[in-house]
Design a protein that fits this description.
Layout (H helix, E strand, L loop, with lengths): L19 H10 L10 H20 L1 H13 L5 E3 L8 E6 L18 H15 L11 H19 L11 E6 L7 E5 L17 E5 L11
């Protein structure tokens, strides 16, 4: 779900692109596929993820920050701080549990994974405050299946490998900072396929690095 992208001008020699069309063309030229939600089901999930990101970063900010800090302080091992933050704001990575983890069977408060705890807080907020049905609950599995569906679309367009599973999934959460919304760094990590899922409509910048030269230096 990518809206209003801008390539950030990192240094003077980098071009500054003035329209979404130019930006998308640049992304395509760098081998980056961009897929928007198309079907009603995809649009519904995209909206739910938008609501989730708004809850975590704004409406439920204090509760969600407590979940992250508790994990960090008590050795929960699902949360880490990323470089790029400051004393005024932090950037967290929140790892999903292993693929063989049974999310539904862990429906008690005893689950220590912070990603599941964030989703659970959001679902409780939706039911208690927004009066949403439990049938509309967001799950980590829903997010995974959405991403795999986009991978399927890529596989069909490129006539390449079909992906049946995802590895090393995480939320990247930035609380405060110089930019509103999400900032993403997309690295060329051959042979891995890196997927960036934009979970909010405010996505002001995407920084792309293409490792094209033999020494591995950033060239674009």
């Amino acid at each position: 779900q990518i809206i209003n992208l801008q390539l950030v001008k990192m240094v003077a020699r980098y071009p500054e692109l003035g329209s979404d069309y130019e930006i998308l063309q640049e992304l395509v030229g760098m081998g980056v596929d961009v897929f928007d939600p198309v079907t009603k089901s995809e649009q519904f999930i995209a909206q739910m993820m938008d609501d989730f990101s708004s809850f975590v970063l704004y409406d439920g900010r204090e509760k969600c920050l407590k979940i992250l800090e508790d994990d960090l302080c008590n050795g929960g091992n699902s949360v880490g701080e990323l470089q790029g933050g400051s004393e005024a704001f932090s950037i967290y990575r929140v790892s999903f549990p292993p693929n063989d983890f049974n999310e539904e069977a862990s429906g008690t408060k005893k689950c220590k994974n912070a990603a599941i705890s964030l989703v659970r807080e959001f679902n409780e907020y939706n039911q208690q405050i927004r009066r949403k049905s439990a049938s509309n609950n967001l799950t980590l599995e829903t997010i995974k299946q959405y991403m795999l569906a986009m991978c399927d679309r890529r596989s069909k367009e490129r006539s390449c490998t079909k992906y049946s599973s995802l590895g090393n999934l995480m939320f990247i959460l930035q609380f405060g900072g110089p930019t509103e919304g999400q900032v993403r760094h997309i690295d060329n990590m051959v042979p891995n396929l890196q997927i960036c899922l934009y979970m909010s409509q405010s996505c002001p910048s995407t920084v792309l690095y293409a490792m094209d030269d033999v020494d591995g230096f950033t060239v674009r």
